Amino acid sequence: MPIELVREKYSDAINTVEIGRPGSRTVKVGGEMTMPFLFEEGQVPNPPVVALEILDCEPTDWPENLKSPFGQSLKDPVTWAKKCVAEFGAEILCVRLASGHPDYGRRPAEAIIPKVMAILKETGVPLVIVGCGDDETDNDLLPKVSQALKGENCLLGIATQRNYKTLAVTALADGHSIIAESPIDINIAKQVNILISDMRFDPRRIVMHPTTTSLGYGMEYVYSIMERARLAAFIGDKMLAMPFILFVGGEVWKTKEARESGEAQGVNWELATAVSMVQAGADMIVMRHPAAARSAMAYIDMIMKKGAEK
Amino acid sequence: MIVIGELINGMYKDVGKAIANKETDVIQHLAADQVKAGANALDVNTGPYSKNPKDDMRWLVESIQAVTDVSLALDSTSAAVIEEALKIVKRKPIINSTNADEAKMDSIFGLAKRYNAQVIGLAMDKSGVPNNRGKRLELGAAIVAKAIDFGINAEDVFLDPIVLPVNVAQAQGLEVLESIRQFRQLSDPAPNTTIGLSNVSQGTKLRSLVNRTFLTMAIASGLTSAILDPLDKELMDAMITAQLILNKQIYCDSFLDAYRKR
After folding, report:
1. Nearest chain B residue to A228, by CA
2. Hey, is the C-beta of B249 within 8 angstroms of any chain A C-beta?
3. pLDDT at B81
C-alpha cells in the first residue's frame, strides 16, 4: 500500500524584505510559506542569499587561512569589496564598520563614510551595514552613515532589546531596513520586534538575527528557536514573521577548529554551519571565506532547482 | 479564539432605540469599537421589540458592513429574518442558531448550505436545556451528524453547550465545561465550540469577574469561540493570557500588545 505523506499548509507567509536602491540591483529575502525547502507544502519565492562580509579596514585578527584568498585587497576595503563581487560572485555585501571600535582605532564617522560610499559606488550591489558592536560608538556612528546612505535602502544593524531606539529612528528617517537581534531567546526576539514596531517602524522591514553559533558551539539551540518562530509565524504571529539573517562567517572564524587546522577545515567548518543554518530557515547568511560562500551558493542553487522541478 | 462581539442586540436599551430610530452612527460606532477591541465577528440581533425584524436586520447588516468587513453572526429565531441578511452579507457569515430539533436543523442547515454559512448549534431541543453532559453530548452529536448530511464541514459548526447563570444553576458550570471538552472529540476535524458567555454572570454582582473566570476555564476545556463583550478589557486580557498559558502564542513581555497586533 502506498504511504501518503502528511503535508502541512499554512495560512501566513514570512515577510519579504527588499534591500538595495529601487531601480538598481536589489536582493529580496523571505516570503516563504513553508518550512525550509518543503516545496510541496508551500512556496519559496526567494532563495536564501549569501552575503560576503568585509570590514571597513584591514582585519588585524583574522587568521592566515581566512586572509589568503583575498591577498593584498584586504589593505583597502573598496578593492576588497570589488574582488568579492567580481571574483567571488557576491550579490550583496555586508560591511562591518569595525574601524569605529575603540579597540580598532576609533576612526571617526567622517573618515568611515567616504569608504562606505565608495564601496557602494564601485560595486553597485546592495549593502548590509553593521556597526562595530560598541553601543556608544554605534549610536553616534550609525546615524551618520545611515544619513549618508539615505535612499539606498540598506539593511542596518544591529538593534537589541537594550539598544534599539537610535537605530530605529535613524533607519526610519533614511528609509533603511533594520536587523533586530536577540540572545537565542524567542521571547526576546518577539519583544525586540514589538519594541521596534512601537517606534512606528514598519515590522515588514525588520530582519531578525536569532544569534549565530558555529558548528560545535550550540548551533542546535539556534535551529530550535528558528523552527519555533517559523511555526508561529506561519499560523499568524506577525511579530515573528520576519526573515532571518545569520552571521555565520564571524562566528565560525572565532573558533579554534576553523582558525588553527589549515584552510580546508576552516572552509568546511564555515560551509557546514552555513548549510545547517539555511536548512534551519535562514534567509540571508553572512559569510567570510569565498570558497565556503561559493559552495553554499551552489548548494542553495541545487536545492532551488530541485524545487523548481516539482 | 474567535471573538464574536455581542453588543449589537436590540435587547440593549440604547441599541433598541437606535434600531427604532434608524440611528446609523450609533450602530456603526458600536461595530467599529468592538472590532477595534478585538472582535473577529459581530453578533447582529434586532431584539425582541423590533416591529419589522426583516427590515431591521437588513438595515443593521448594511450599516455595519459600511464600516467593517468582519463576518457577522446573524442572530434570530426566525429563518426568514436570517435569510434576509444572508442575501446581502459580504463575508462568510455565522447563523445564530439552530437547536437539535429535526425541523429546525433542516431549515437552518438548508440555508447554511445554500448561502455558504457557518452555524451555531445549541445543545438543546424541544424539551429544553439538558441538565447533564451526557444529554448535551447526544444533542451535539445529532447536530454535527445533520450538518455532515447536508455537506457542511464539522469545523463550520459551533456547538454551544448553553451556559446558565451561576446564581440559578450552579451545578451546570462543570457540566458545560465538560461538554466543551467532549464536543471537541465528536469528529476529526473537530467542530468549533462557542458559548454565550455573559449568561453565566446574569444577575450576579461581579459580572466581569465571573465572566472572565468562566471564560478562562472554558478556554482550558477547549473552547474555540465565544460571544462576549469585547469592550471589557480585563476580559479580553484574561482571554489572551489563557491562550498564552495554553501555548497558543509565544510569550514576550508585551504579549497583550503582541496579540492585539495580530
Report:
1. B250
2. yes
3. 97
Contacts of A195 in chain B (CB under 8 A): 254
Q: B246 and chain A: CB distance < 8 Å anywhere?
A: no
The confidence score (pLDDT) of residue A127 equals 98
- Assess contact for A54 and A81: CB atoms under 8 A: yes
How far apart, in whole angstroms, are the C-alpha atoms of residue B199 and residue B98?
18
In terms of pTM, does the model score above 0.90? no
What is the spatial distance between Cα B153 and Cα B101, in angstroms, rounded to a whole number?
19
Q: Which parts of chain A register pLDDT below 70?
A: none
Please give the radius of gyration of chain B, using alpha carbons only, rounded to the nearest integer: 18
Question: What does the alpha-carbon distance between residue A206 and residue A229 come to, in Å, rounded to a whole number?
Answer: 14
At residue A261, the pLDDT reads 85
Q: Are A153 and A20 in contact (CB under 8 A)?
A: yes
CB atoms within 10 A of CB A182: 23
ipTM score of complex: 0.82
Kindly report the number of other CB atoms within 10 A of residue A57's CB atom.
22
B60: three-class secondary structure by DSSP: helix
Contacts of B251 in chain A (CB under 8 A): 187, 190
State how far Cα A186 lies from the chain centre. 18
The H or E element that residue B43 is part of is: strand B41-44
What 3-state DSSP class applies to B87?
A: coil
CA–CA distance, A149 with A97 (Å, rounded to integer)? 14
Q: Which three cell numbers stand for residue A255?
A: 573558533
Distance in angstroms between the alpha carbons of the first and the last residue of chain A: 23
Return the pLDDT at A6: 86
Intra-chain end-to-end CA distance of chain B, in Å: 12
pLDDT above 80 for B164? yes
